[in-house]
Amino acid sequence: MTTGACSPSTGSDVEPSHQPVLLDEVLELLRVRSGGFYVDGTLGLAGHARTVLARSAPDGTLLGCDRDSETLELARATLAEAGPRARLLHADFRSLPRTLGNQRADGILLDLGVNSLQLDSPERGFSFRHDGPLDMRLDRSSGESAAELVNRRSETDLADLIFRYGEEPSARRIARAIVAERRKQRITRTSELAEIVRRNASRSRRPGLDPATRTFQALRIAVNGELDVLGRTLVELAGCLVPGGRLAVIAFHSLEDREVKHGFRELARGEPFEVVTRKPVTPSEAEQHRNPRARSARLRVLERREAA
After folding, report:
1. Would you say residue 192 has pLDDT above 90?
2. Which of 22, 23, 211, 254 is the most exposed place for a label (fewest CB within 10 A)?
3. Considering only CA atoms, which of 203, 154, 210 is closest in space to residue 178?
């Protein structure tokens, strides 16, 4: 969940550095109301969740989950004032359909991606802008780190991964260079990998885009399985809505957004779903100016129609 800014009209007192992307738009499109039950499947720093709880007071409730236990503890402190109205779980949003069981939500939010705290913490290893251990795991308690991945995968596998998830034209050259470097010594730092990529990546057509961006994105997606069964999960979550309930998803790169777009379209082909956003909702110029990381955000919303 890449953090952004919100306008004063929300009434939120979330601190500026913790304000989420497209907050006003999410509140409006989810139609947050008093007494509703809402789910935030990617809690992050709880900017969305805190404002949803404020808007749904005095008796609205929220279930929030995040796979990053460190971020979850910060969110828990942020939402402590909500007391029993907020229930928080250390879990991946893909487990939500099982968690909810027969319980139905008025609104479900997924804010996909990485939050600013994770990006700005060198020890998390997400960013090529800070030197740190090459990790990239959203949940550091399990799974393979990015360092383990780049030092273990074959050249062909690395090239395919970088091309598929990063849409990087120079994927094969970058993979070849990674394998050549790791023969000399194991690649363990973000700065080491970034330098290898920069020497071998094609120049971006977009001014100001670091040549390492696409490769780091690809590795992060692979390490965290971000696209694994995303489409199927959207179908399952749509089934967890009450009639009139809405599912809102914010994506930050084209691969995620494509999955959401196609998933929503397929659901809307039959009863009882309708795509609310014919085109994705994007941050205003003012929000992008306040928070450049918000510029790639795309919000799509699906509604479960009222029962006939």
Report:
1. yes
2. 254
3. 154
**What are the Cα distances from residue 287, in Å, to 6, 46, 253, 276, 284?**
7, 19, 18, 22, 5
Residue ranges of the domains in the chain?
Answer: 8-113+227-304, 140-224
**E strand spans, 162-279:** 241-251, 273-275
Least confident of 5-19, 47-61, 190-204: 5-19
Q: Mean pLDDT throughout 72-77?
A: 96
The residues with which 249 forms a beta bridge, in sequence order, are 110, 300
* Model-wide pTM > 0.85: yes
Here the tokens at position 213 are 């961006």
Of the candidates 74, 81, 73, 75, the one whose C-alpha atom is nearest the C-alpha of residue 48 is 75
Digit-coded pLDDT (tens) for 145-162? 999 999 999 999 999 999
* Separation between Cα atoms, residue 279 and residue 252, nearest integer Å: 15
Q: Which two tokens stand for residue 286?
A: 């003012």
Sequence-separated (6 or more) residues with CB below 8 Å from residue 183 = none
Reference 178, options 145, 203, 152, 211; nearest CA is 152
- The CATH class given to the 8-113+227-304 domain equals alpha beta
In CATH terms, the superfamily for domain 140-224 is Putative methyltransferase TM0872, insert domain (1.10.150.170)
**Which residue, chain included where needed, has tokens 């956003």?**
277
